[in-house]
Design goal:
There is one protein chain. This protein folds into four domains: 2-112, Sandwich (Jelly Rolls), CATH 2.60.120; 130-173, Laminin; 180-208, no CATH class; 213-393, Sandwich (Jelly Rolls), CATH 2.60.120.200. 1% of the residues lie in helices and 38% in strands. The chain has one helix at 353-356; strands at 2-8, 11-17, 22-26, 41-46, 49-54, 57-60, 107-108, 111-112, 144-148, 151-155, 160-161, 167-168, 181-185, 190-194, 199-200, 206-207, 213-224, 235-243, 249-254, 264-270, 273-279, 286-289, 302-309, 312-317, 320-326, 341-344, 366-374, 387-393. By secondary structure, the chain is mainly beta.
């Protein structure tokens, strides 16, 4: 499989192969090689339907029956490749050559790549396209960069400060603890502190411990499974207790949640009923919704378990089997390659639940979670030792 964007005789060309055929899209307008004009390029696919957009002019390749997942096992290359042997002969029309020009603002699946010296895994023969120390987006938040003898300086908009305009003026004198995030509140000319896991209080100075995690909204825990490399991923299992009075919310997401091709197993609430969704490959998300009766949003504790036996999924609620389905009798994909990552309650600050889950769940979880067990482990996982923010001690209060 491959996906390649190239410049051919002045035209932008997109080629991709999902395993059965190579699809080719090409722009109608040429890119003029004057070296002074920046062009905006958007390209990609939804299933096996491709699209290519150059400066607002869009081309779409109609979808037809066939493969719809992109399985690649190489690094992501920009501007060229480390070895021509890595280029599939069908990915380009002629012999592959490196790109000459400037590239900026590369966004892959809503995540911007940092084209710096330190962030990529490697590279060669690449320089600063701007030709000065200012470069591109050195000054954040629409700051203006000026070249100086000692380097550069940034002239910041009214709401921002710092050497690169990276800090809100409302957070410049904040009292948040060292483990906290300062969130500016421009309308009130103030800020709020979002506490890291294990801290609480207005400024996050109070150290806490808990066995019951309380999620208040805009909260999350990210747990990394230390035994992931030893797991038999064809036989996954997760169980936990939860309580809430909300009708919507993501309880747990087993998976990286980084791009559309990541496997995942998710559990949450939709319209007051328990919803389980699993994706073992090819971006086929199979939703299993228990709608017999709504018991999940009554403020009482409920015990939920999801068991994956290859493609057979069982869901238990309060020890009653409520869902049992074989999501793929053909057994094409049978392993849950979740990357050893489990999110509880939501995702990192700034990542919207409805965006990351592509609408499968609408909101973060508000309520409490305890007694989380993965696979057939004899011990509950220690949520306190994970990463997270805005999670509190659920042992007391509502």
């Amino acid at each position: 499989d491959f996906l390649c964007i190239s410049l051919l005789n002045g035209f932008i060309q997109l080629r991709y192969n999902l395993g059965d055929r190579t699809v080719i899209l090409q722009t109608f307008q040429k890119v003029h090689a004057n070296g002074n004009t920046w062009h905006s390029l958007k390209a990609g696919r939804v299933g096996n339907e491709g699209y290519l957009d150059l400066d607002g002019i869009n081309i779409t390749q109609e979808a037809s029956p066939g493969m719809n997942a992109l399985d690649t096992h190489t690094d992501f290359f920009v501007g060229g490749v480390s070895s021509l042997n890595l280029v599939n002969p069908m990915a380009v029309e002629n012999e592959p050559t490196g790109f000459t020009g400037c590239i900026r603002e590369i966004v892959i699946n809503n995540r911007e790549l940092k084209l710096t010296v330190t962030d990529p895994k490697g590279g060669a023969n690449v320089g600063d396209c701007d030709g000065t120390v200012c470069g591109y987006t050195v000054c954040k938040n629409n700051g203006t960069c000026q070249v100086e003898n000692s380097g550069f300086s940034c002239s910041c908009p009214q709401e921002w400060t710092g050497s690169s305009c990276e800090q809100s003026i409302h957070c410049s004198q904040n009292r948040c603890g060292s483990q906290a995030l300062c969130i500016p509140q421009p309308t009130s000319f103030s800020y709020t502190c979002v506490c890291a896991l294990g801290w609480s209080g207005e400024y996050c100075y109070n150290k806490i411990k808990f066995f019951i995690a309380k999620f208040i909204g805009n909260s999350y825990i990210k747990y990394t499974d230390p035994y992931y490399g030893k797991r038999d991923l064809q036989y996954s299992r997760i169980s936990l207790n939860f309580t809430t009075n909300q009708t919507e919310g993501l309880i747990v997401w087993m998976g990286k949640g980084e791009d559309e091709d990541n496997d995942f197993l998710a559990m949450g609430l939709v319209n007051g009923t328990l919803k389980v969704v699993i994706n073992l490959g090819e971006r086929i998300s199979v939703p299993l919704i228990h709608s017999k009766y709504s018991t999940c949003c009554d403020g009482k504790w409920h015990f939920a378990t999801v068991v994956q036996n290859q493609t057979c999924i069982k869901v238990y609620l309060d020890e009653e089997l409520i869902l049992f389905e074989d999501i793929d009798p053909q057994r094409k994909y049978t392993a849950l390659n979740y990357g050893g990552i489990c999110y509880f309650g939501g995702f990192e600050i700034g990542r919207k639940v409805n965006v990351v889950t592509t609408g499968l769940f609408q909101k973060e979880f508000i309520g409490k979670i305890k007694d989380v067990v993965l696979f057939q482990d004899s011990r509950k996982i220690q949520l306190m030792k994970a990463e997270g923010y805005n999670v509190y001690d659920g042992n007391y209060g509502n």
